[in-house]
């Protein structure tokens, strides 16, 4: 296990200090998190052979992150995770125009989204980091001063727990998520994740158009490549002549989960390392992204190259473009309410 020296992340920008924080549990698992975007820089865990593996893509220095072409490695995403069509929505009689960063649409909160914010950080213990941020009224076009807190905890059950909370002084939309790129066989020289065995507990998914915006339909996964109700390799159907897979160049879709209680959304396993990850959330959706556009050459950690399908993302969330789809669960946050969301990545070891 090779941790990154803290000084590589020490930097001051606009009088805000960037730093690197280390969380350790009693099982020997370690994660390092920077308050620049709330990014998980690495996550070290033992495999079935008792070797330590780092299982998230990332960079070695803060300057690498500041200059990266891959904008979202390990980051907190907000105010709105995923896409909003035409970068606009209405709340009552008020129309709001957002700052677009993907053609005519907004992706992941815009260029100045939470992934590029310098969060106020307080390390509460060896296992817990508290991050806070004030997103001011009209930041990237969103109404309301939004006070956000994210609590990262590394439990002794090998759970990486992410707890989100937020309040606003004006009715607004909020949809926060986390964007680590995982490879459970390790990221030193990552092999493709096509042989990872994935199960998603969803009977439906939301098909997309050619801009990867949901069409508004909620479609059964049955008899489609999107049926992960029984575990199967990610790559089993990924190259099929399926319109949705062609539009996404693989999987980049929201899966519809049941209810707003804590439940297991997905389980994914890597036979080579024996590492399994369970995704637990109270969110109504899970975005599965199969790393279709990863392209980092000789600039990842330890000069690693990350290529197409070198990692996957499982992002707990509300559906993309919910502000413009009345049949999707609402992402409205009222003035007198508190936004609460939970994502738990729980790691275990399983022999072949």
Textual characterization of the structure:
It is a single chain. This protein has about 350 residues and is mainly β. The protein has a single domain (about 5-350), classed as Beta-galactosidase, Chain A, domain 5 (Distorted Sandwich), CATH 2.70.98. It is about 5% helix and about 40% strand. The chain is built from two helices and 28 strands. It has helices at about 60-65, 245-250, and strands at about 10-15, 15-20, 20-25, 30-35, 40-45, 50-55, 75, 85, 90, 95, 105, 120-125, 130-135, 145-155, 160-170, 170-175, 175-180, 195-200, 205, 220, 230-235, 250-255, 265-270, 275-280, 285-290, 315, 330-335, 340-350. The strands form eight sheets. It has a nine-stranded antiparallel beta sheet with strand order 12-13-14-15-28-24-23-18-21, with no helix packed on it. A five-stranded antiparallel beta sheet has the order 20-19-22-25-26, with no helix packed on it. Strand 9 and strand 10 form a beta hairpin. The protein is globular. The mean pLDDT is about 95.
What's this, in brief?
The chain contains 2 helices and 28 strands. It has helices spanning 62-66, 243-248, and strands spanning 11-13, 16-18, 20-24, 30-34, 39-46, 52-54, 75-77, 83-84, 88-91, 94-97, 106-107, 120-125, 128-135, 146-154, 159-168, 172-173, 177-179, 197-200, 204-206, 219-220, 232-233, 252-256, 263-269, 275-281, 285-289, 313-317, 332-333, 339-349. β5 (39-46) and β6 (52-54) form a beta hairpin.
Helices and strands in order:
Layout: E1 11-13, E2 16-18, E3 20-24, E4 30-34, E5 39-46, E6 52-54, H1 62-66, E7 75-77, E8 83-84, E9 88-91, E10 94-97, E11 106-107, E12 120-125, E13 128-135, E14 146-154, E15 159-168, E16 172-173, E17 177-179, E18 197-200, E19 204-206, E20 219-220, E21 232-233, H2 243-248, E22 252-256, E23 263-269, E24 275-281, E25 285-289, E26 313-317, E27 332-333, E28 339-349
Antiparallel strand pairs: 1-2, 3-4, 4-5, 5-6, 7-17, 8-11, 9-10, 12-13, 13-14, 14-15, 15-28, 16-27, 18-21, 18-23, 19-20, 19-22, 22-25, 23-24, 24-28, 25-26
